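Retro notes
What went well: the complex prediction finally ran end to end.
Inputs used:
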Amino acid sequence: MSGAPVTAPPCALRPFARETQLAAWPATPQADAGQLVASNGGWRSLWPAIALDACNGCGLCLLFCPDGAMVWNAHGLPEVAADWCKGCGLCARECPKDLIVMQAEPTP
Amino acid sequence: MNTPEFLAGNEAVAQAVRLCRPRVIAAYPITPQTTVVERLSEIVEAGELDAEFVHVESEHSALALLMGSAAMGSRTFTATSSQGLLYMAECLYYASGGRWPLVMMNANRALALPWNIYGDQSDSLALVSAGWVQAYAENAQEALDMIIQAYAVAEDPAIRTPVLVNLDGFVLTHTYEPVSVPEQAEVDAFLPPRDLPDGFPGTFRADAPQSLAITAGPGDYTVFKYQQHAALLAAAAAIRATAERFRARFGRGAQGLVEAWQADDAEFVLITLGSIAGSVRSAIRALREQGVRAGLLRLRYLRPFPAEELGAALFGSQRSLPVRAVGVLEKDISFGHQGSVSLEVKAALYEHASRHRAPAPPVLNFVAGLGGQEIALTDLHAMFADLQGLAHSPSDDRRHLAAPGFTDVRFAGMERFLEENQHQDAA
C-alpha cells in the first residue's frame, strides 16, 4: 500500500482571509479539499508516537484516521500531520503491530 | 393572459414549483403540507417535471439532502409544516449559514402540545431568526407568485439566502381560488437557468473537491455571520426589484415588503400577515362606510424586516392624517412576552420615534387564530373598536382580557373568561 503520497503536500494550513477587506473573505464556509482553515492541534492531549523501525507500512492507520492526519513520508512510512491530528488514539488502537503509542506531546 | 385555474393554495405552490423546474425535491409529508408534495410527486411521475423526488425519512433529512444537492449546483424544493419545520430547525441554520439558495414552502400550523393540526403562525415565527427570507402569502395567486420570485431572490449571487414561503394552514393551503398559472417559457425567461453557474459560492465540482460546512473559530465566525446579516438586509432591495420585474412580465403582484391598503388616511391601522388580510379588508370596507378611517398594512415579508417601509407607511409625507392607534394581529404568542410580530413592529416604531424624535402611536397586540381558531369579521370589528377606544380614552382600555402586566396584549377567544379575569387585572 505504501508509496504514493495520500495527502500531498501534507497539511496545507490556509486560514480564512486576514485582509481588512470583507470582499477578500470567502463567500461561504468552504475550502479546497486537503486544506485546514484552523489547526486541530488544540484538541490534542496525547501524541501518537510511531515506532517506525518495525513498521511495514500496511497503511491501516491512514485508512482508519478519521481526520486524514496520517500521511506517507518519503520512505513510504506513516507520519502524523500535527495540524490535522486531534489525538483521538484510533491509530494506536488499530495498528496491528502495536507500534503506535499515545504519549505526552513532544516538547517543541 | 391564460385562463385561470381553480386551485387550492397547496396546488398553486405545486404548479409554481413545476414551473421553476427544480432538479431535486425531498420531502416528508405532514398535514397541512401533504398535498403540495403529493401533487409534485404526481407531476414528477407523469414526466411533467424532470426531477429527482426523494422520499426521505424525516424533515431533517429533507433539508440536509437539499443542501447536498444545492452544493452540486441543483435547484431544489421542499415543503413542511409545524413539527416538521421545528424538526429541521438545525438544518435551517446550516442552510442559511452555508448560503445555499434553497426554497421551502411552510404550511403555517400550530405547535404541540396540546396536539393540533390547524393553522397558526407559531411555527415559522419560532424560526424567524434562522437566517432565511420569510414571506407570507395572502392568497393562492400570491403563493404561486412568491414561490417563483423566491428562486430569483435566493439565487441572486449577491443574496444567496434561502427563502421560506409561508401559507396559512388550511385557510390558504386547502382553499380553492382562481389562480393564473403562467406559461413555462415565461417562467424560464424570468428565472436564471435551473443549474447554478460553475463556481457559484457554496458549490463545487467532483473534479475539484472541497470541504463544505467547515469550521470558523471565534472572530472568523463573526465575519461569516455579519456577511449573512448583510445579505439578508440586502435582500429587501432584491425582493423589490424582483417583484417589479415580475409585475412587468406577468402583470400582477405587490411591489413592496409591506402592502398598504386604505392606509394613507387611516387613523386606525391594523398590521397583520397572511390570509387574514382578506377579512381585514372586508372589515375596513364596512368601517369606512361608517366613517371610520381604518386601514391595513400587510407584512408580506418578515425577513428582511421591512422597518423602513413600515415607518414610511405609518409616518410618511403621503399621509393625510396622523395614525392614532396601531393594532398588530397575529396567530402567535411568544410566551412570557407578547406576539413575535408585535415585538418586531414595536421595535421598528421605537427606532423610528427615537430617530425622528417623534411620538409613537399606541400599539395593541391581538393574539388570535391560535390552533385554527376562527377570526370572524365580528372579531376584527371588535379589534378596530379597541383601537378607537384606545385613541379616544387611553385610560379606559381595561375591560379586555389581558396578560398580567401586559394590558396591550389581547387574546381572542378568551372573552368568555372576561368576568373571571377582572379580579386578575385588579390584582
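What we learned: The longest strand of chain B covers residues 76-81.
What to try next: split runs per interface for comparison.
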